[in-house]
Design brief:
The complex is a heterodimer. Chain A is mainly α. Chain A has eleven helices and three strands, in the order αααααααααβααββ. Among the domains of chain A are: about 80 residues, no CATH class; about 80 residues, Orthogonal Bundle (Arc Repressor Mutant, subunit A), CATH 1.10.10. Chain B is an alpha+beta fold.
């Protein structure tokens, strides 16, 4: 370098190297995108300036990231030399253009399924018998537990199964898509949608169904849930990665679906 | 206790490798050594000879990548019994996978291998979604993870799973994929 290296420039250069290495680790760039010689030269240029602990840690982190990129370069060369890897973009384009049957045939040509047997053996029967021997009678086991008193079992017709939700007319994916469409419609009209306003529609069972569907949409990243003074929902164009996700749960009271 | 005879060891090896005990089929190398004695490799070799007649083979594979071993993850080979040959498309139903799901699996593995074994889940789902739709691609990726064909790391990256190492000849797969001719309707299916 012509001018005297400065601390600020050095920190910026090292951070840029770290960011590039991270992008390579996430397979956004080819490992050979980074000139390792130049990166090491940069490290050497700024190393004499580091005095603070943070700067030395940044230096160490950069060395670690560079070593990972070097490993990836090695892996890529091994893959290419074994003809398992060409240009990822070319291969992806090729497989995107292949038909379903051809892809399935390619899979079957290289697949050697594992043989797994599940069968009763004398040992497992012995274990079962031991468990049976130590199992207390049913009456003794349920003694002290609260039991529900209600109607005796009755024969269920198809209509009963549909009413109780055991069987569904539409499949779950279509139902989710319907709920997402409804949410998108409301969002287009009035912006962020209140969670409880959206979920509490119809009777209690409908509320539970809608809350269940929303939980899937949020988990899949199709809907963003924000919890501040109130809970709001926003549909997303693209689901994000799983980083920084938080698990939330909202109990639905049996008394008319009121929020706690 | 007396040492079991060699034929008994052979039968024991067959039982250990064929019957599913835990979540994964087969047995780890050290477990086999403990169960069959020092000459466990000879026993496995003879079992392999017997199974050849049925188009089956004893197959050992390294469960953990070399790079993970360097980071302190416990390694070791796992042995299992698998089909020696391959299945014709007519018998694909025996695998429990639909043809289009098998195609999606081939696509996903092809994408991972071409990127040195790793790719972002979001990117894989987006690529699969172009042909199968967004929802189906998500559930399919979940299913591939459940079955062990791919694995998801904490940072949202997908990598090859233990079942792929056990069942799939990746070189053959990549060769087949590269030699696959594009279909006529492919232009409509892809953007």
């Amino acid at each position: 370098m012509d001018s005297k290296p400065s601390l600020v420039e050095g920190r910026k250069a090292l951070k840029e190297i770290v960011e590039t290495c991270e992008a390579i680790e996430r397979r956004r760039f080819n490992p050979f995108f980074l000139d390792l010689d130049l990166a090491v030269k940069t490290l050497r240029t700024y190393y004499p300036l580091w005095e603070k602990r943070e700067d030395l840690m940044l230096d160490a982190e950069t060395v670690k990231k560079l070593s990972r990129v070097l490993t990836l370069q090695n892996v890529q060369l091994l893959f290419q030399s074994s003809r398992m890897c060409g240009d990822p973009a070319v291969i992806q384009e090729k497989i995107m253009r292949a038909g379903v049957k051809d892809l399935a045939q390619a899979m079957l040509n290289s697949l050697h399924p594992v043989v797994e047997l599940e069968q009763l053996t004398i040992q497992s029967l012995k274990k079962g018998l031991e468990y049976w021997g130590s199992l207390k009678p049913f009456i003794e086991r349920i003694r002290g537990r609260k039991t529900a008193s209600g109607l005796s079992p009755v024969r269920a017709e198809l209509s009963n199964l549909l009413e109780s939700g055991v069987l569904q007319v539409e499949d779950f994916t279509s139902y989710l898509e319907g709920v997402l469409k409804e949410l998108q419609g409301e969002f287009d009209l009035k912006g962020a949608v209140d969670y409880w306003d959206f979920v509490k529609r119809g009777g209690f069972s409908s509320t539970v169904d809608r809350a269940y569907a929303v939980s899937f949409l949020v988990s899949y990243g199709m809907v963003k849930m924000e919890v501040n003074n109130r809970i709001t929902l926003r549909p997303r164009e693209e689901p994000p990665g799983k980083e920084g996700t938080v698990r939330l749960s909202f109990p639905i009271s049996l008394a008319g679906g009121e929020e706690p | 206790m007396t040492e079991p005879t060699y034929p008994e060891k052979l039968k024991r090896a067959a039982r250990l490798l064929l019957f599913k005990r835990g979540r994964k089929p087969g047995m780890k190398e050290w477990e086999l050594k403990a169960a069959l004695g020092k000459r466990y490799l000879d026993v496995l070799k003879d079992l392999n000879e017997l199974l050849k007649e049925l188009d089956l083979e004893v197959y050992g594979f390294e469960e953990v990548e070399e790079s993970s071993k360097l980071e302190g993850v416990e390694g070791g080979r796992r042995f299992l019994v698998r089909l020696k040959g391959t299945m014709p498309i007519k018998e694909a139903k025996l695998l429990g996978w639909r043809i289009d799901n098998l195609a999606a699996l081939a696509f996903t593995l092809g994408m991972l291998v071409s990127r040195q074994g790793k790719a972002e889940r979001v990117e894989v789902e987006r690529a699969l979604g172009e042909k199968l739709g967004r929802w189906r691609s998500m559930t399919l990726v979940d299913s591939m993870i459940r079955n062990g064909y791919i694995a998801e790391e904490e940072d949202g990256m997908l990598c090859l799973g233990w079942r792929t190492k056990a069942e799939v000849d990746l070189k053959a797969l990549m060769t087949s994929l590269i030699l696959t001719a594009p279909t006529q309707d492919s232009g409509e299916q892809t953007r």
